[in-house]
Each structure stands twice: as C-alpha cells, then as structure tokens.
Amino acid sequence: MKRAVDVVKVGDRIRFEDQVHVLAGLDGPRCRLLAEEDASVQVLLLTQVLQAPDFDVVDHPRSACQRVPVHGPLDGLGPEVRDKALAWERHILEVETGHIGPRQDWPPRPGYDPAMHSLAEREAAKAAELTAAGQVVSVATVRRMRARYREEGVWGLVDGRRKRERSVFGQADPRVVAAITGALTEQRGRSTGTLSRLRRQVAWLLQDTHGTEGVAVPPPSTFNRLVRAVAEQQGLALTAAGERRRASRPVPVFTPTHAMAPGELVMMDSTLLDVMVVCEDGKARRPELTMAVDVATRSITAAVLRPKGTKAVDAAVLLAQTLVPQQMRPNWPQYLSMAASVIPHQRLVSIDARMHGAAARPVIRPTTVVIDQGKVFVSRCFLAAAEHLGISVQPCPPASGHAKAQVERGFGAIGTLFAQYVAGYTGNSLDARGSNVEDQARWTLPQLQDLLDEWVVCGWQERRHERLRHPLMPRLTLTPNEMWAALVAIAGHVPVPLAAADWIELLPSRRCAIGDEGIRFEHRTYDGPVLKGHRHRSTAADGKWEVHHNPYEPWQCWVRLPHGWEPVPWIHQRLVSRPFTDTAWRHIRRVVKQRQGRAEHEEQLARHLDQLLRRAHAADTGVSSIGGSSPAESTPGAPDTAASAGASGKPSKTGRPAPSRRKTQAGHTKRRKAVTDLPGNQAGQIPDADEDYGTTPDITDSVTSAAAWNIFDAHQEAQQW
Asked: Which of 62, 404, 423, 566 could form a disulfide with 442 if both were Cys (CB 3.0 to 4.6 A apart)?
C-alpha cells in the first residue's frame, strides 16, 4: 500500500529519481532540489517530488525533547512518598547536569562537575553521599532511578507499591463480583425481589461454577454494600423500578468537545434523511445521509446521499472529498464561489491551484476522525483508506451519541433548514407525517444530492453559529467560512496531492485468482490484454491477486500487477447500454434463475440488465431510474436553489407536483412506473432478452456513474496538479 504523504522541510536529504538531493528551498507549490552528486539544481513542483515512485526521506533527524515533569499524579499520594520522589529528582538532575535546581549559574558541587568527572564517577559519588546520609544506596540503584526518570519522569521515581490502584470493590473476591454482575444482568427486564433473594441466587451461581466447597458468599451487610457498588460501577439497576428510572433518565451533561485548528477533530456519522426520493426501481424511499463535520469551524466538509445501506466505499470517499475543493456547478450563481467569499482566495490559489473555480466550502485535512461503532466506519475499507491518507480513527463508546454532538446537531439542522422545504418531506416523526408522502416524491437521488451540495455552500457555510466565536473578539459570532478564514491564517493550508492511484486505493478490495477466463466475482468475469502473462502466476501464498472494485462502476475492476494498477473491463459491458450500479446487478441476480452454464448465465444476466435499464430510462422521470444519471440529464427545469425545492413546478389539481414528461422515439409520453409495474414484468419476470433494441452503444459513451452519484474521481483531480 502506498504510504501517506511525508512532511518534509528545508534541509532534508531526500531520494528522487535514483539520486540523493537536498531540499534547498520551498516557494509555495514549488521546491528547489540540490543534487549531492553533481551539485545540479532543479526547480520542480513539490507534488511531483512527493508522488515519485522512489521518493523517500533519507534520514529522519529527531530533535531531542525535554520531558515535561509529571507532578499531577503525585497529589494523590502521601506527603512522605511525594517528598521522597521529588528528592530523588533533585539527586538525578545533579548527577546528569551538575545542578540541583533551575539556577544554572551556581557552580556544581565537588564531584558532580560534568566537565571534570564522568557520568560513572558522578553516579558513584551520589551513591556514596546517600549511603553516608543513612540510606543504603548502590551505584546500580542510582543508574536504575536515572533510567526510570528518563522514561516516566517524576512518576517513575515513586515506589511501585504506592502506585497500585485501589479497586472500587475493596478486597472482595473477583469471583463473587463476577457472580453478582451476572445475577444483576440476568434479572434485567424481570420482576426483582429483595437483596436476600439476590444473595441466594449468587450463592447458587457460585456453587454451579466453583462447586459446593468453592467460594463463600460474604455476610449480608458486606454483601449489600458490594451489590450497590457493583450496580453503580456496571450501570445496573437493583430493582425493576430502578431499571425503568434509568431507562427514562436523560443523557448526562457532557463536556463540550473543543478543537483549536481545522481538521484537529472531524466527526462522521450516517442517518436517514426525512425526504422521499425516487430510487433505482422507480419507487420512493428515504435516502441515507453520511457527512463529516469539522469541530473547529463547524463546516460540513463533505455530505453524501446514498440509498439505504451506505457502503464502506462511500465513507472512504467521504474522507477524500474533505481533502479537495468542491468545484462550482454550471447552474450555481457566482456569489457561491470561493472568490466571492470571505475566504482568502487569492492567497490560497497561490498555494493550491485547484482553488480556481472552487465553491465557498473549506478544504480541510482531517487529523483525527471520530466515528461510531457502525459497520461502515469500522470496515476494513474505511480503516485502510484512513491509514492511506494519514488520518487517525477514534471510535466512540457504544450508545454515546453525545460524544459526537456536532455531527448530530448538524443532522438536526439539515432536517429543519433543508429537508422540510423539499418535496416529499416525511416529517421527523410518525405523527408529523402527511398522507401519500410517497406520491409527492419529485427528486431522484442525484438531483437531491445537487440540491444538498448547493444548500451546504449557501445555507450552512454562510450561516452564523452561536458557538463560533472569533479568537480575538469573543463577542463576535462567525459563520463556518469566517471561522475557517480566521483559523487558516494561523494554522496554514497544506494541499494534499492525490494521484490517480489514490482513488483506486480507497475502493473495496478482495483477493481473486486470474484464471484462463480472467477474474471472476459476483457472477461477473473481467478479462483483458493486461492479464496476459499473469494467469496462474501469482507469487502470493494463496495464489491470488489484489483486486479493487467500485460498487457504482461494476463494469470494470483494477488489479495490482507487479508494475502497478491496471483496469480490467467486464467482458459483457457492451451488452449494457446504460450505466448501472451493483444494486441493480444484485436485483437482476435475484429475479433471473440460472438454467444454463456459468458463461451463458452471465450473458443472460447482462441482457436482462440492459432491458431493465432501458425500461427504467424510458419511464416518465426524465432520468434513468437505475444507475442514476448526471445532473445534466436531470429533469428539465430543475430549480437552482434548495429553497425552491418544494415550490418549483406548478402543482396539479390534486395538489401533487406536476410530473415532468419525456418524449419517446414514437412521439408519445409514458407515465412513471415502478419496475415491478412495467409490462411483461409481473411476479418479477423479465421480458425476453432476445428482443431487438438495435445497436447497443459502448458503456463508456454514456454518462459515468461517478458523476451521477457524485463520487470523487482522483483521475480527474490529479490532472489539475
């Protein structure tokens, strides 16, 4: 795996193009390299040097840092123990430096001058001094205390017996504590009795576990105190009433999370949006919103809408979207651009050329990402993407939504300020939901994504937040963009160059063999000339190769060959005329039963998928119902702002938004229908695949699903460097 981008500074010796150079200067995005061999000078883009295959920092000099003395834990010890540790600290400092306190102008005492005596002589002098004072101290003891002081500071000089932590259960037998915990856990949700009954249950549990002559139950008074301590420590209730009170107890007051620099803490989470959208099969469902919020600036650095069931690749792509500027859409007004905002655009453009034509949304490199225990965020794909980008991941404890309050509050703001103005709004609860909300769904998922992106720039980033205060003027409330402009002047902005291979690294991976027919997984076969010479020749122990694939572009995959990544096309991609996703492919696999061989069945699946895509594309939505389409192919007359999302288009006489219509080749119009309502598709049946639809164009001639689903494409982004 390609390692994260290194941090270099002037004076570092780096390896570039099989030579060792000295980084002689940095000027914005350019750097000056001085070759050690022939003293030649080169002026190159820093990103070109960092992305070189043989780039490496030859030596990593580590500056010696003084350990800050740790005195806080000493306050919990007795005065004798604390005074003894501080006395040892003075002795160690005198042995190492010749001085006892901070006064460096006092001359060293005889026998402790580093200029006249070696370290071994000073250690022997200290041992003799302490022994003469009444302590039996050897030279080995002085040397051992020096090592402990270097490793742990003053805390290392404390007697280890004094540092042992006391148990909240005192000297109780751990087996009794485990039995009480098990008994309290078992009675959750049941009718509870007295503590005497609980004591008998614990006794029975100990007998079953350790035998009749095993562990004795403490006396009643001691047992009652121990039960209360266990219940308080483990968060368990002694009675059913206590359990009900605990369940209805509000979330305790928590300490607000603060961050002083952009990207110091970025919180990520997913939730269902309270809006109905037209999904792949033509039916209306609620999408799932996954977004990232920067704590220091309250900026929504990235927000992605997906069908319910966000994939790990979506969360991984969300990380990449935070690192690159968001480009202006063709239909966006000019006041949404970064050049028209308070962000120091001209200065950022001189550092990062990608800021040209960017929207007014901060570009933040996360240092730490706070996530919950969702399977998407703890997946191997997401963790590998975070490691590849040099981002640390900090998981929250289970059932602790207050630990990521900023992103939770962001979800609430989106529901209040954005979702309730969009056609197809469901309300935030069942009692607030209207009738026939599914019939009011007007937007497809790509269209709603475009509206959300525009609202984030104009409705969120330019909205003042009560919690955002200027560092030098605390009475002044700021917008997220103003806060980022204030902090970026202090913290600076370091552009992250993403090469074309970085996008492939973020995709889900699997191990596949390259056989005579190619690479096969998910009932799809990938083959091409690039696999020539690599069939059945893997040097790995399992005989397989690393393959990455995109669930939103199933018509190709990437295999890591010895010389790098190579794309491998799907052998039946020309049979499918429209872009599609893995969701549509899985639907076809469920409804089409295998009645032939493996190769024939795969071709049959491709033909049935093409029929389904054509029928969905001809429906009365104006866009493809499966696989999505780009915003350019969206319904004509789509509004330019999120505020007009619920009011654009004249309502019909029935009160429902008037659906758009699209002319077919015959000159007629068709009303939008679900896939299951299409002619010839009753009971999940797919029409005959041999029906003539004319010449099938290449899949590459259609709009790619990367643009349709707003997936970050580093191939295009890398060309801007």
From this structure: 423
Angstrom distance (rounded) from CA 588 to CA 608: 7
Residue 434 identity: G
- On whether the CB atoms of residues 559 and 568 are closer than 8 A, the answer is yes
The tokens describing 717, both together, are: 């982004």
Give 230-233 contacts, CB < 8 A, sequence gap 24+: 230/169, 230/177, 230/180, 230/181, 230/184, 231/184, 233/168, 233/169
Nearest alpha carbon to residue 496 among 322, 636, 257, 702: 322
DSSP 6: P
Q: Which has the closest alpha carbon to 343: 479, 231, 222? A: 479
Selecting from 3.10.180.10, 3.30.420.10, 3.40.50.1000, 3.90.1640.10, what CATH number does the domain 266-479 have? 3.30.420.10
Instruction: Quickly count helices (H) and strands (E) in the chain.
Output: 19, 20
Sheet holding 56-57, edge to edge: 41-45, 30-35, 19-27, 13-16, 56-57
Residue 218: CB partners within 8 Å, gap ≥ 6?
Answer: 172, 176, 226
Coil vs helix vs strand at 365 = coil
Among residues 317, 486, 468, 314, the alpha carbon closest in space to that of 406 is found at 468
Q: What is the pTM of this model?
A: 0.51
Strand-pairing partners, residue 22, are: 13, 34
The Cα–Cα gap between 628 and 454 comes to 19
Element housing 43 (H / E): strand 41-45
Chain centroid, CA 395 distance in Å: 10
Question: In this structure, what token pair is assigned to residue 555?
Answer: 């018509």
Sign, CA dihedral 515-521-524-529, equals negative
- Name, in order, each residue with C-beta under 8 angstroms of 255's C-beta and a sequence gap of 6 or more: none
SS3 140: helix
Local mean pLDDT, 10-residue blocks, the chain (721 residues):
54 87 86 88 86 78 40 65 85 85 70 88 91 89 89 79 64 84 77 76 86 82 85 67 49 66 90 85 83 92 83 77 85 89 87 85 90 80 79 81 83 88 83 77 85 91 88 86 88 76 78 92 92 87 87 87 90 87 84 88 90 70 39 34 36 36 34 34 37 36 38 48 46
In the sheet that holds 564-569, the strands lie side by side as 509-512, 545-550, 553-561, 564-569
d(CA 691, CA 610): 11
String of DSSP letters for 202-217: HHHHHHHHH-TTSPPP
3-state secondary structure of 327: strand
| Short-list 570, 611, 604, CA closest to 589 | 604
Read off the DSSP letter of residue 444.
Answer: B
- The rounded distance, in Å, linking the Cα atoms of 184 and 116 is 69
Q: DSSP 3-state helix, strand, coil percentages of the chain (rounded to 5)?
A: 40, 15, 45
Provide the 10 A C-beta neighbour count for residue 439.
14
If we measure between CA atoms, which residue out of 338, 341, 348, 301 comes closest to residue 323?
301
How far is the C-alpha of 54 from the C-alpha of 60, rounded, in Å? 17
Q: Name the burial class of residue 375, with classes exposed (0-12), middle (13-18) and buried (19+) by CB atoms within 10 angstroms of its CB.
A: exposed
326 and 395 Cβ atoms separated by less than 8 Å: no
Which amino acid would we find at residue 616?
Answer: A
Helix (H, G, I), strand (E, B) or coil at 156: helix
**Long-range interactions of 72-75: CB distance < 8 A, separation 24+:** 73/155, 74/154, 74/155, 74/158
Strands 30-35 and 465-469: unpaired
d(CA 527, CA 547): 13
> Considering only CA atoms, which of 232, 419, 369, 327 is closest in space to residue 631?
327
Q: Cα–Cα distance between 126 and 120 in angstroms, integer?
A: 10
Give the SS3 label for residue 501.
helix
CA geometry: angle 166, 235, 195, nearest 5 deg:
90
Query: What gap in Å lies between CA 570 and CA 579, rounded to an integer?
Result: 13
CA distance 45 to 49: 7
| DSSP run (H or E) holding 278 | strand 277-278
